[in-house]
Fold:
Amino acid sequence: MSPIAFVYLATVLFGIGAAAVLTRRNAIIAFMGVELMLNAANLALVAFSRIHGEIDGQVMAFFVMVVAAAEVVVGLAIIIAVFRARQSISLDEPAELKG
Amino acid sequence: MISPILFWCVAFLTVVPALSLLFAKKAVHIAMAIVAVMVGLAVAYVALDAPFLGVVQIVVYTGAVMMLFLFVLMLVGVDQREEMKETLVGQRWIALFGAGGLVALLISVIADVTMEPAEDMTSGEPDAVAGLLFTDYVVIMEILGALLITAAVGALVLTHMPRLAPRRTQKEQQRDRVLAGANPVNKPMPGVYARHNALDVPALDPEGKPIEDSVSRVLEIRHQMDTATSYRADLNDPSKRVSDKPEHEATAETDSEKGEDK
Structure:
């Protein structure tokens, strides 16, 4: 079976993650959707690396992982800060900003 | 080439738990399902000749990132309910349509690809990845190190709470308590100087009066405290006073009586 099958799998996972980000209201669940999208992109990078027979794609995926880890740390800190201020992590709450 | 059985196992192990992102109610269940997705992706990486990335995936994602998510869920409260009321009319269906359309678009593009996969490749062992990481990509590597430090400091700054009032020291707390009229010394243990040292018997002070504070407040609430009325009666009744006789003689007598009984 060709490694291109894993690119299809990555596409499906990316779609699921995108749908979760767009539909869920809980900030943490939406954030997990973002994580799933990043991982789907990683899977596509590794699959392309295998298709080309080069290791560069894996290095790119490694960089994505590092950036994702940094992003998770800051994102979760923001969620905690918002929760402290508003006692809620609903993504609909900031709609009150429009006054 | 990759065995089809392996691919379908990985596909099942990743797509089914990932769907819980859309359908599961509780955030903790979703977090555990995403852990399963990450493990499935690690298997896929190993199958795609990237063993180093597979291990990194397990360590970073299942080990660190998802556990961080679980910790934050614990801090925020697991029972944070998600209200299902739609603020934008039809937003859910538009979102699902958009995501589905994205998948359809990407799949139609990938289906056009006619590239043949390479026959052989150097496996992504740690030394092979490191060779590339510390030669061609070394600048990016350094910048990512700076990024990680910045992220850690940023998280500390964002979650830091400034102290609004100066911290009260132990000394100040003790002074306030004494000024408020509290007893400055420790409370005695229950049963001290009393006739028996069970937890429900109040200690006796030097005058022989029961100290009711010495019994646990819980027993008091449950009405399990010995009310110490008998001790008070003994105190008020001069004929029952044993204070004329030294304590150890009285106990010695009772001990010898017991010995005779046996």
Observations:
- Residues 190 and 196 of chain B are 9 Å apart (CA to CA).
- The first strand of chain B starts at residue 203 and ends at 204.
